[in-house]
Amino acid sequence: MSKIITPDLCDEFPEVQVVEPGFNNYGGVRQFGGEIVTVKCFEDNSVVKEQVGLPGNGRVMVVDGGASKRNALLGDMLAEKAAENGWAGLIIYGCIRDVDEIGETDLGVQALGTVPRKTEKRGIGDLNIPVTFHGVTFRPGQYVYADNNGIIVSEKPLV
Q: What's the mean per-residue pLDDT of the chain?
């Protein structure tokens, strides 16, 4: 994949949507992008766990965790599984944990923050539905690109 620089992509493709600021870059891959797969869950990462166990094929999982800061939706074991299975990255509207290990994982990860508590697995969550946060609706099949400058969403692949 070509180098992803979101300011340059915004200049070249002014039609992209720009996600409002507030995310931090935690992964070992600092710039990433790909086709969107969505997960909507709240304090239960069961669907995230299922998905990282499947082939990612360079896609990006966008997880709407309802901005909860009580439980981490991603930890080192799930991040490693995602990297092994070819996911380009995860964007989490919520928190993660094990940030030192995730920072050494070959995976892009952006999230709102960190918290040490894991979720309970209750098997609750939705896959591949539109999710909206930080001023943008993410739809399965769209494309998302992220770097230290921010996150953008496009109807078509840009790189």
A: 97
